[in-house]
Request: fold
Amino acid sequence: MTKWLNSLQPVGALLMRLILGVSMAVHGYSKVLPMSALHHYAHYITTLGLPYWLGYISAYTEFVGGILLILGLLTRLAAALVAINMLVAFVTVGIHQGFGIYNYILALAALAIMLLFYGPGAVALDRKVGFA
Reply:
């Protein structure tokens, strides 16, 4: 049974990448487009006591990082940035919003950390271009 499960590791990595990537890209898209949403999000970030420019980095990390994770391109870099983004979100927002929010944020952070350590898996563009 263990051999069979081990043979499915590439599928597991692909599913982790797709689930995290789609989730991040969807959340990032709503913060990046339209442009007024990006400015609104950056102003929201300042209410959390963080610098204005960090809102832009956070939004683009979610959107572009999500797309990179879906493609399996620069997976470890994207996963590291997403993990940092989610851990900051947990500390600034999640712990104040209750279990329904912070468990989701922690789950996304855990997926990102797992991909950072494990890598993109066999079914990824990183493998094709030699980044993995």
